[in-house]
């Protein structure tokens, strides 16, 4: 099929300019699809006829692969840009924690329970581990099958089956294929058997080779066997080698649109200490691991990785904002303090968290600053005395209390007199840093 232009693609789009694809107009979206910087399936309203007509133009330069089923399904790949500021990264790196078939039943149960507990809430979003990687180490294949069966019974997380032996993997897939695990790994020596298993059980397959030319050769052969969902393991010998290969794979897929390497990737984080492993995993999340496999299960090691991932996989062109309205922390009554902050998500959840830590129930009026923090909003004229007064009145905050005191962030103390004179409220300057809120509310707040 001849290469389609943006105009060709636009003619087949709904032309509603609804913005659901995260682009302002259908024309803008069509141009991104034409240059392989966006996938056609980002438009939720495109017709089946259009998809068929567009053919190859709808295929992103990197294939999207799904691992697992149901609510815990992991989607990886489908990326369209090298750098986050160009658009955004679409599918967050999957974090897989490793277990082995050398563990006793009690040890295995305890480790799975610990993995399942690695879920946290940060800035209003739940973040956590995505996969369990079950490694085959014992010579006895029966032991591996029993281990996978037990893991599958203990957790809802999708599985990565780290077993390059097709003979040991075959009986495992008979029982576990319904969960759509990722099987690892097809190599130069076993690719035909592994490809057959992937086709038979309709599961994604990881392909491993140290040389990228060999990796491309293997993916071509495996795809010819009927396997579409592949994940690439470039077998980095160390962190530097791993990052170099992941970067080359990304460039070849996105810039050169080299289809044999247009798949998501997998990397193993290692290190002589948990701290080194965490550092390696962080580096792979940043550049460009689709799935990262690691050993650590301690919260202090995993939470920083999840935080980094959460920060990276947001849209840099769309501020991370919350709804501007009146929020309650605790069970505030008529003597509760009234504070205000901006609708930048990190700012609000930080303030709300510190108010909760103070054990003082309060009202928090959130001002719409288009997702900017306090200082940025003030500098951009999106946080003004007039806007604060208007918002607090519209939200009815002062009508819920029997005092007329408003606590403002210390960073915008300059607004105090203007708000006070124009509103008639008593304006109190709070701490500059949210960490000072608990002490401030406990020691300085009084409704009288």
General description of the model:
With 448 residues, this protein is of the alpha/beta class. It has three domains: 9-57, Electron transport complex subunit B, putative Fe-S cluster (3-methyladenine DNA Glycosylase II, Chain A, domain 3, Orthogonal Bundle), CATH 1.10.15; 64-312, Dihydropteroate synthase-like (TIM Barrel); 326-443, 3-Layer(aba) Sandwich (Rossmann fold), CATH 3.40.50.11600. Helix content is 38%, strand content 17%. The protein contains 16 helices and 17 strands. An eight-stranded parallel sheet has the order 10-9-8-7-6-3-12-11, with helices on one face. The model has no long low-confidence stretch (mean pLDDT 93).
Which tags fit this structure?
448 residues; TIM Barrel; eight-stranded parallel β-sheet; Rossmann fold; alpha/beta; 17 strands; 3-methyladenine DNA Glycosylase II, Chain A, domain 3; three-stranded mixed β-sheet
């Amino acid at each position: 099929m001849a290469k389609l232009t943006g105009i060709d693609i636009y003619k087949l789009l709904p032309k509603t300019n609804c913005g659901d694809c995260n682009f302002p107009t259908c024309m803008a979206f069509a141009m991104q699809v034409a240059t392989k910087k966006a996938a056609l399936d980002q438009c939720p309203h495109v017709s089946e006829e259009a998809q068929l007509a567009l053919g190859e133009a709808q295929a992103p330069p990197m294939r999207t692969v799904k691992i697992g089923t149901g609510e815990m399904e992991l989607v990886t790949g489908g990326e369209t840009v090298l750098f986050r500021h160009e658009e955004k990264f679409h599918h967050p790196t999957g974090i897989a924690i490793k277990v082995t078939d050398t563990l006793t039943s009690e040890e295995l149960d305890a480790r799975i329970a610990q993995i399942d507990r690695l879920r946290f809430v940060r800035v209003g979003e739940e973040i956590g581990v995505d996969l369990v990687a079950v490694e085959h180490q014992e010579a006895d294949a029966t032991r591996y099958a029993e281990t996978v069966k037990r893991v599958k019974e203990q957790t809802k997380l999708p599985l990565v089956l780290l077993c390059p032996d097709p003979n040991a993997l075959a009986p495992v897939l008979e029982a576990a294929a319904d969960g759509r695990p990722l099987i690892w790994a097809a190599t130069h020596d076993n690719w035909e058997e592994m490809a057959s298993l992937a086709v038979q059980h309709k599961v994604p397959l990881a392909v491993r080779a140290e040389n990228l030319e060999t990796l491309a050769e293997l993916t071509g052969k495996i795809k010819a066997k009927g396997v579409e969902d592949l994940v690439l393991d470039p077998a980095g010998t160390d962190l530097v080698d791993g990052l170099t290969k992941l970067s080359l794979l990304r460039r070849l897929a996105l810039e050169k649109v080299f289809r044999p390497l247009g798949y998501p990737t997998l990397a193993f984080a290692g290190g002589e200490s948990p701290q080194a492993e965490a550092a390696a995993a962080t580096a792979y999340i940043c550049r460009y691991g689709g799935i990262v496999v690691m050993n650590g299960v301690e919260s202090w090691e995993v939470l920083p990785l999840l935080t980094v991932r959460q920060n990276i996989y947001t849209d840099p062109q769309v501020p991370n904002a919350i709804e501007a309205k009146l929020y309650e922390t605790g069970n505030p009554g008529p003597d509760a303090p009234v504070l205000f902050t901006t609708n930048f998500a990190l700012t609000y959840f930080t303030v709300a968290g510190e108010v909760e830590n103070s054990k003082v129930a309060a009202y928090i009026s959130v001002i719409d600053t288009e997702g900017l923090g306090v200082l940025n909003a003030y500098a951009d004229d999106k946080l003004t005395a007039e806007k604060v007064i208007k918002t607090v009145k519209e939200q009815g905050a002062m009508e819920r209390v029997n005092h007329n005191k408003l606590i403002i962030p210390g960073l915008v103390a300059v607004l105090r007199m203007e708000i006070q004179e124009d509103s008639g409220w008593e304006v109190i300057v709070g701490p500059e840093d949210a960490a000072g809120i608990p002490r401030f509310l406990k020691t300085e707040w009084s409704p009288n």
